């Protein structure tokens, strides 16, 4: 009898594991990709209507895909298992937030997006992520909502941004602080 070899997973499965999470259900994947595609379309339409060049519209479509889809992905049980288990969970969570330099890149390639806005929102989101990720489980949710509420108000009322790009910061905050940093039901204990 020959030993059985593990089945090789195809490129689509590996890509899904990367973009959604290992073990994502069909419905989690479907909903995440659908929302990502809608986000890409909405962002492209907004950018085109604002008169941005084709390269900027394409960048906005990619950002829309990532932010809209990522907000849904981060709310799934499979993504929660990926980021909220193990001893290095807080470090993985903060690292994930730190890699989201979307607004800084936007300020770099689009002079209409102010550096002051990009830096303030990046620093505020990252600082909030450190506090939330290292907080006790009972404080994570209220801290995340307090930080998200504060950042959203600042983003839409205090910090300057072109009207066509005003959606970016709120969706990024929702994706990272409420979607990514809050554990899902499969990773919390004692809740019913």
Question: Which keywords apply here?
Answer:
mainly alpha, 9 helices, transmembrane, 192 residues, membrane
Overview of this structure, please?
This protein has 192 residues and is mainly alpha-helical. It has one domain. The chain contains nine helices and no strands. It has helices at residues 11-19, 26-49, 54-74, 77-83, 89-98, 102-109, 115-134, 137-157, 168-180. Helix 2 (26-49) runs antiparallel to helix 3. The longest helix has 24 residues, at 26-49. The chain starts with 10 loop residues before the first helix and ends in a 12-residue tail after the last helix. The model is unreliable at 187-192 (pLDDT under 50).
Mean pLDDT: 88
Using only CA atoms, what is the Rg? 18 Å
Q: In which range does the helix fraction lie?
A: 55-70%
Number of spatially distinct domains: 1
Transmembrane segments: 30-50, 56-73, 94-113, 119-136
Keywords: Membrane, Transmembrane, Transmembrane helix
Quick summary of this structure?
69% of the residues lie in helices and 0% in strands.
How would you summarize the topology of this molecule?
Elements: H1 11-19, H2 26-49, H3 54-74, H4 77-83, H5 89-98, H6 102-109, H7 115-134, H8 137-157, H9 168-180
Helix pairs in contact: 2-3, 3-9, 5-7, 6-7, 7-8, 7-9, 8-9
Transmembrane segments: 30-50, 56-73, 94-113, 119-136
Keywords: Membrane, Transmembrane, Transmembrane helix
């Amino acid at each position: 009898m020959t030993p059985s070899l593990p089945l090789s997973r195809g490129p689509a499965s590996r890509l899904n594991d990367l973009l959604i999470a290992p073990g994502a259900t069909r419905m989690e994947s479907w909903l995440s990709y659908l929302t990502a595609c809608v986000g890409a379309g909405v962002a492209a339409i907004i950018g085109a209507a604002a008169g941005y060049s084709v390269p900027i519209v394409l960048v906005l479509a990619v950002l829309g895909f990532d932010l809209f889809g990522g907000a849904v992905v981060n709310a799934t049980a499979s993504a929660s298992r990926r980021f909220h288990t193990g001893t290095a969970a807080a470090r993985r969570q903060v690292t994930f937030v730190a890699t989201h330099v979307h607004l800084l890149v936007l300020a770099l390639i689009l002079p209409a997006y102010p550096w002051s806005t990009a830096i303030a929102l990046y620093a505020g989101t990252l600082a909030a992520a450190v506090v939330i990720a290292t907080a006790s489980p009972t404080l994570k949710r209220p801290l995340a909502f307090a930080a998200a509420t504060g950042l959203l108000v600042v983003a839409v009322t205090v910090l300057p941004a072109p009207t066509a790009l005003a959606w970016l910061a709120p969706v990024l905050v929702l994706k990272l602080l409420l979607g990514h940093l809050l554990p899902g039901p499969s990773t919390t204990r004692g809740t019913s």
